[in-house]
Amino acid sequence: MATVAQKLSAAGTSHALELRGVDRMFGALAALSDINLEVRPGEKRAVLGSNGAGKTTLFNCVTGDFLPTSGRIRFFGEDITRLPAHERIRRGLRRTYQISLLFKGLTVLDNIYLACRGVSRGRFSFVRPRRNEALMQSAEELVDAVHLTDIRDRPVAELSYGQQRQLEVAMALAGAPRFILFDEPAAGLSPTERGELIEILQSLPSHVGFIIIEHDMDVALRVVESVTVMHNGRIFKEGTPEEIENDAQVQELYLGDGHG
């Protein structure tokens, strides 16, 4: 059976995500300027930068929350620059947000089931799900994958902030995604919760690539193989975690003295 990389090669592309000359203007403000980025299938990458560097704007353009002013975005070889967000989701793109977007009155399992249902062909059906239904089984598996089995039947409103972030990861994994964008998943977590998050991200399937925006360097650099640093809406540096961590210009710009 052909691998994802082999199929992409046959189709004339080797990238899961490709941005060419992407700009995003807000009036006279250039939030993104000439972004050129390539991410391989299965690659795990961090996008770092200070507040206002353009990281979340980059995510918003990729996911279709709003469109780039100019430039092109390709997802596994297909031009998705002008596609609406729901069409990008159908193609296997997922995303989490800085602010939790969960159904607080429902249980952990119910939230994950709805995420699985939402990307399935039968998402508009009103038939009550059975325990042996394939989508319910998928939801049960995702509960286990993000270490929430013990609280699967608890209302989300009763969960800690860290547990809610774990739940968001599970919901992003619904429906066999091909690529995920994580927007500051470690923000506000305790040291123990950050360790749990690292373990979950490191255990994701090897074929599922992701980009993570993260201010916590101890999290970001432990779960990725490549790093892009942004500054003033532009790509400033790219390299391995080790190269970026030891780069004097990056330390001066972003990491601060004494890091590492």
Automatic annotation (TrEMBL):
<dbReference type="Pfam" id="PF00005">
    <property type="entry name" value="ABC_tran"/>
</dbReference>
<dbReference type="GO" id="GO:0005304">
    <property type="term" value="F:L-valine transmembrane transporter activity"/>
</dbReference>
<dbReference type="GO" id="GO:0015188">
    <property type="term" value="F:L-isoleucine transmembrane transporter activity"/>
</dbReference>
<dbReference type="InterPro" id="IPR051120">
    <property type="entry name" value="ABC_AA/LPS_Transport"/>
</dbReference>
<dbReference type="GO" id="GO:0015192">
    <property type="term" value="F:L-phenylalanine transmembrane transporter activity"/>
</dbReference>
<dbReference type="GO" id="GO:0005524">
    <property type="term" value="F:ATP binding"/>
</dbReference>
<keyword id="KW-0067">ATP-binding</keyword>
<dbReference type="GO" id="GO:0016887">
    <property type="term" value="F:ATP hydrolysis activity"/>
</dbReference>
<protein>
    <submittedName>
        <fullName>ABC transporter ATP-binding protein</fullName>
    </submittedName>
</protein>
<dbReference type="GO" id="GO:1903805">
    <property type="term" value="P:L-valine import across plasma membrane"/>
</dbReference>
<dbReference type="InterPro" id="IPR032823">
    <property type="entry name" value="BCA_ABC_TP_C"/>
</dbReference>
<dbReference type="GO" id="GO:1903806">
    <property type="term" value="P:L-isoleucine import across plasma membrane"/>
</dbReference>
<dbReference type="GO" id="GO:0015808">
    <property type="term" value="P:L-alanine transport"/>
</dbReference>
<dbReference type="InterPro" id="IPR003439">
    <property type="entry name" value="ABC_transporter-like_ATP-bd"/>
</dbReference>
<dbReference type="GO" id="GO:0042941">
    <property type="term" value="P:D-alanine transmembrane transport"/>
</dbReference>
<keyword id="KW-0813">Transport</keyword>
<feature type="domain" description="ABC transporter">
    <location>
        <begin position="17"/>
        <end position="257"/>
    </location>
</feature>
<dbReference type="InterPro" id="IPR027417">
    <property type="entry name" value="P-loop_NTPase"/>
</dbReference>
<dbReference type="InterPro" id="IPR003593">
    <property type="entry name" value="AAA+_ATPase"/>
</dbReference>
<keyword id="KW-0547">Nucleotide-binding</keyword>
<dbReference type="GO" id="GO:0005886">
    <property type="term" value="C:plasma membrane"/>
</dbReference>
<dbReference type="Pfam" id="PF12399">
    <property type="entry name" value="BCA_ABC_TP_C"/>
</dbReference>
